[in-house]
């Protein structure tokens, strides 16, 4: 057994039971005796005493040529995906394969030894075509799925990206500090995963939704710059860019820092990583575009705008509200709403806003319009409408009969020209904005010439509202993070308390980092002053005692003199998904759960024994299925 250190491409590799890997041999190795190990990917017999084996390991594949009946018989007796050792002689291939890195050579074996036999004649799916298999099968046999080089490369990418992030953060003076996994339950916006405490009957730990409080406590403890690749646990539903159960983020915090300090670090660290490892080699340069939240909602219909798209939203309420089209009316009856295909619902027919998206130089068919409008309606849950300006300058198609009589006003409001398509939404403000945002993204991606797809476009969304009116309570509530510093500090809160300003106009020193229409991260300048913190909570009917009860460690720590601090936590999973060009986050996670938060490979979650429950002082009403 060769256990010496071999040097491969400048890297020290400990080789066990092999002289080379399966992606390494070249024409310069012809004549050498070698030992290769790996998985038997395929065996092909082409005649009496002649056959070919493709041997695959982590690094690549090598062709093995079988030139005797004995060797062919030996290989045929081995099931595909068994692990084997091949000792033999390297020679030049007569028929080279330029698509294979080792395509100039082949190995003629002296011996083939089975190291780990695959005991199944049939595999759940073909390894090299596993991405075409049913997802349930892929997740159940994930260890086979990961043998596919196309699947494995995403995990390798993830490893390289994390290594690059660690190096960059360390070079920027950040210390990597791990924070607890078992902690106290805390109201942070999502459901906790609870862990029963055996030694403390009736009490529970919680897995952290984020290291938020711990990293702020580190700032209070005197650490200047902290980061970690942090695991976070939230009991929430899955979606394309979110994995249920656990996810990872590049968590960071800076003491004596402002929003500008956080922006500077992110704008320095992230673009080189995206340019080096991304599907595209172009990324935004510093400074990233900054867009206030309210402007983003009005201009792009979303607080996650994709700036690769050149389409924007225009409010045309004043121009179109009296055009005679029912869904555009500022007030309509329930009967009118029903007659307008349910565009408005009874009881929600007031305060209608009308949003328009102009798509210039539109040359697609009516069938294309109908299909894309249908996609918008499916995604937004709301109706969308359209009309065009033809080559003669006339308004045609869709709802044009309603807007044609006020053509001059419409053309002026939207700066229309021949060939423009106008797609519209209506409804209460948030619904109209949301639908307009979907129009921008859907038509922007579908219509040629309106999206520069092959780059990573970053932007900051800033000036988020501190408060909102809760849909269920009808009362003032925190809009996002309750620990963000209100812009203007204590004085702003006191003005709201005295009735001098509307609390809904208070913004927070909070920011989101968005890339290509996907929220990569949220962050904020933290509210580090107990007096300001208490006043912020009093605005939502919670007093000092509530703050002490819900966040005792942080409140007490801040009372001992906390530095101003700020941070952010870009999602590692989403980052790698973007870099890999994948649509599903499960493609870049080594062992992902399914959409129902189940690990069907390991059988989790699972029932446990009565004895285990007794030790934890727990009774359950659920029964095994």
Automatic annotation (TrEMBL):
Binding positions (ATP): 234-236, 519, 571-574
Listed Pfam families: GAD (PF02938), tRNA-synt_2 (PF00152), tRNA_anti-codon (PF01336)
Location within or outside the cell: Cytoplasm
Main location: cytoplasm
Keyword entries, A-Z: Aminoacyl-tRNA synthetase, ATP-binding, Cytoplasm, Ligase, Nucleotide-binding, Protein biosynthesis
GO terms of molecular function: aspartate-tRNA ligase activity; ATP binding; catalytic activity, acting on a protein; nucleic acid binding; transferase activity
Domain Aminoacyl-transfer RNA synthetases class-II family profile: 160-590
Biological processes per GO annotation: aspartyl-tRNA aminoacylation
EC number: 6.1.1.12
InterPro entries: Aa-tRNA-synt_II, aa-tRNA-synth_II, aa-tRNA-synth_II/BPL/LPL, Asp-tRNA-ligase_1, Asp-tRNA-ligase_1_N, Asp/Asn-tRNA-synth_IIb, AspRS_core, GAD-like_sf
Function: Catalyzes the attachment of L-aspartate to tRNA(Asp) in a two-step reaction: L-aspartate is first activated by ATP to form Asp-AMP and then transferred to the acceptor end of tRNA(Asp).
Family, per entry: Belongs to the class-II aminoacyl-tRNA synthetase family. Type 1 subfamily.
Protein name, entry field: Aspartate--tRNA ligase
Native source organism of the sequence: Butyrivibrio proteoclasticus (strain ATCC 51982 / DSM 14932 / B316) (Clostridium proteoclasticum)
């Amino acid at each position: 057994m060769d256990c010496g250190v071999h040097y491969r491409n400048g890297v020290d590799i400990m080789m066990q039971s092999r002289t080379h890997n399966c992606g390494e041999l070249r024409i310069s190795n012809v004549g050498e005796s070698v030992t290769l190990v790996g998985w038997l990917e395929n065996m092909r017999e082409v005649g009496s005493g002649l056959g070919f084996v493709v041997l695959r390991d982590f690094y690549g594949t090598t062709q093995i040529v079988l030139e005797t009946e004995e060797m062919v018989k030996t290989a045929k007796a081995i099931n595909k995906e068994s692990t084997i050792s091949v000792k033999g002689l390297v020679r030049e291939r007569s028929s080279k394969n330029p698509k294979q890195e080792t395509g100039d050579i082949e190995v003629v074996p002296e011996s083939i030894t089975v190291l780990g036999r695959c005991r199944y004649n049939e595999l759940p799916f073909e390894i090299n075509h596993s991405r075409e298999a049913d997802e349930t099968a892929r997740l159940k046999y994930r260890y086979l799925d990961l043998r596919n080089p196309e699947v494995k490369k995403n995990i390798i990418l993830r490893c390289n990206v994390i290594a690059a992030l660690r190096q960059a953060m360390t070079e920027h003076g950040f210390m990597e500090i791990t924070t607890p996994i078992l902690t106290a339950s805390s109201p942070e916006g999502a459901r906790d995963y609870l862990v029963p405490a055996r030694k403390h009957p009736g009490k529970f730990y919680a897995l952290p939704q984020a290291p938020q409080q711990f990293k702020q406590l580190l700032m209070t403890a005197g650490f200047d710059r902290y980061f970690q690749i942090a695991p976070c646990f939230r009991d929430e539903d899955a979606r394309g860019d979110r994995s249920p159960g656990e996810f990872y983020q590049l968590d960071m915090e800076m003491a004596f820092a402002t929003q500008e300090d956080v922006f500077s670090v992110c704008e320095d660290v992230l673009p080189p990583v995206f340019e080096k490892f991304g599907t595209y080699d172009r990324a935004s340069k510093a400074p990233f575009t900054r867009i206030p939240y309210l402007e983003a909602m009005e201009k792009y219909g979303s607080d996650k705008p994709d700036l690769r798209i050149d389409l924007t939203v225009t409010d045309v309420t004043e121009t179109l509200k009296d055009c005679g089209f029912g869904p555009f009316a500022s007030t309509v009856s329930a009967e009118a709403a029903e007659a307008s295909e349910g565009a408005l619902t009874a009881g929600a027919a007031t305060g209608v806003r009308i949003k328009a998206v102009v798509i210039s130089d539109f040359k697609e068919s009516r069938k294309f319009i109908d299909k894309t409008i249908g996609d918008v309606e499916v995604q937004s849950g709301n109706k969308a409408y359209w009309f065009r300006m033809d080559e003669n300058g006339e308004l045609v198609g869709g709802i044009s009969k309603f807007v044609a009589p006020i053509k001059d006003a419409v053309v002026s409001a939207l700066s229309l020209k021949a060939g423009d398509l106008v797609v519209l939404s209506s409804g209460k403000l948030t619904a109209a904005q949301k639908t307009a945002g979907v129009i921008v993204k859907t038509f922007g991606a579908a219509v040629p010439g309106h999206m520069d797809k092959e780059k990573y476009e970053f932007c900051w969304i800033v000036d988020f509202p501190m408060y909102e009116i809760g849909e269920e309570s009808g009362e003032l509530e925190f809009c996002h993070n309750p620990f963000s510093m209100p812009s203007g500090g204590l004085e702003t809160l006191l003005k709201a308390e005295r009735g001098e300003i509307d609390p809904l106009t208070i913004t927070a020193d909070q920011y989101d980092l968005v890339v290509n229409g996907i929220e990569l991260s949220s962050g904020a300048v933290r509210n580090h002053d107990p007096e300001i913190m208490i006043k912020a909570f009093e605005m939502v009917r919670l007093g000092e005692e509530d703050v002490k009860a819900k966040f005792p460690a942080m409140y007490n720590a801040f009372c001992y003199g906390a530095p101003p601090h700020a941070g952010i936590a870009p999602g590692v999973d989403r980052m790698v998904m973007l870099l890999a060009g994948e649509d599903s986050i499960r493609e870049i996670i080594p062992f992902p759960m399914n959409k129902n938060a189940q690990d069907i490979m390991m059988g989790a979650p699972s029932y446990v024994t009565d004895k285990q429950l007794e030790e934890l002082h727990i009774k359950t009403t659920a029964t095994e299925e």
